[in-house]
Specification:
UDP N-Acetylglucosamine Acyltransferase, domain 1, serine acetyltransferase, domain 1, single chain, 46% helix, 10% strand, five-stranded parallel beta sheet, 325 residues
Length: 325
């Protein structure tokens, strides 16, 4: 067995070098500041929200009509307490960054506390409506995939449904001015599923992402009802204008509008804030689109020119040699 590693006399010098690297670039450290949402706590909140949204599928099982009331009554305070703390941290973080002070005064803390309570309660009150939307997404996944045996399979196994479920919760927080907590939620979903939906995007009911992996939905995307995307679809921005100082201009519509009953097939790319896909339209696979299309239109690429060459086998080579003799 090898001897244990001992850093020994190297420790003070290495500590000093790392501290110097902290001091040389403030962008990669969060020191001498009081407030910051916790990524690990937010991930725990995601799991609790999924358990609340899909009882019996995530977390505790064997629920019945006799214990489900107790289960919900136990979960809501737990979610509320955890969520309140993260919202409070973000609101104070916003104040701390906005006024440049390193420490919050008592008035600022009280303001964060009151706003955090209001937002937390409002969010919890929206959960039944979020669940109604999630039910339409589950049904859309089942209706849209002939491989699905039932809606249970859709909830338990489909990464697109998981990503959209987390987005639905994050979107509500984004609308309530808690964008960092919301973004951490959807980026965790991105890591888990390969689907990147910005919480600022607006998405209607019955939304389904088939196969899921590689889908990107930008912040200012507007998606209607009964829309279906396949793997690799990008709803993105076409360009990023800058101001006179070379900084990106933010806060304008950069991403497409997708109206009701649109289908976008695998690896299609649709870019631009002025690009609108009309109701009932279809975008075929691998299309690159930067202009709008009318309702009930279909966009497709010309079929590529294919070359098929028969592979030579050992028997073919032997026959060719024999014919040459």
């Amino acid at each position: 067995m090898p001897a244990r590693f001992q850093i020994g006399d190297h420790l003070p010098q290495l500590v000093e070098k790392i501290i110097d690297s902290y001091n040389s670039d403030p962008r990669t450290r969060h020191i001498n500041r009081a407030y910051m949402p916790s990524r690990s706590e937010i991930i725990e909140i995601i799991h609790l929200l999924l358990e609340l949204a899909f009882p019996g599928f995530f977390g505790r099982q064997n629920l019945n009509q006799h214990n489900v009331n107790f289960h919900v009554g136990e979960m809501l305070p737990k979610i509320g307490e955890k969520l309140y703390e993260q919202i409070y941290q973000e609101l104070c973080y916003q104040q701390e960054n906005g006024n440049g002070r390193k420490n919050q005064n008592q008035q600022g803390q009280s303001s964060c506390e009151e706003k955090a309570r209001q937002i937390t309660l409002e969010f919890l009150e929206r959960i039944p409506d979020i669940r109604k939307l999630l039910a339409t997404d589950v049904q859309a996944a089942y209706d849209g995939d002939p491989a699905a045996r039932n809606t249970d399979e859709v909830i338990l196994a489909y990464p697109g449904v998981l990503a959209v479920s987390i987005y639905r919760f994050a979107h509500e927080l984004h609308k309530m001015n808690v964008p960092l907590v919301a973004r951490i939620m959807t980026e965790w979903a991105h890591t888990a599923t390969g689907v990147d939906i910005h919480p600022g995007a607006t998405i209607g009911s019955h939304f389904f992402i088939d196969h899921a992996t590689g889908v990107v939905v930008g912040e200012t995307t507007d998606i209607g009802d009964y829309v279906k995307l396949y793997q690799g679809v990008t709803l993105g921005a076409m360009s990023f204008p800058k101001d006179e100082r070379g900084r990106l201009i933010r806060g304008y519509k950069r991403h497409p509008t997708v109206e009701n009953n649109v289908t976008i097939y695998a690896n299609a790319t649709v870019l631009g804030g002025e690009t609108k896909l009309g109701e009932g339209s279809v975008v075929n696979g691998s299309v690159f689109l930067t202009a709008g299309i009318p309702a009930n239109a279909t966009v497709s690429m010309k079929a590529p020119e294919l070359k098929v060459r028969k592979r030579r086998t050992r028997e073919t080579n032997k026959q060719t040699k024999a014919e040459n003799y």
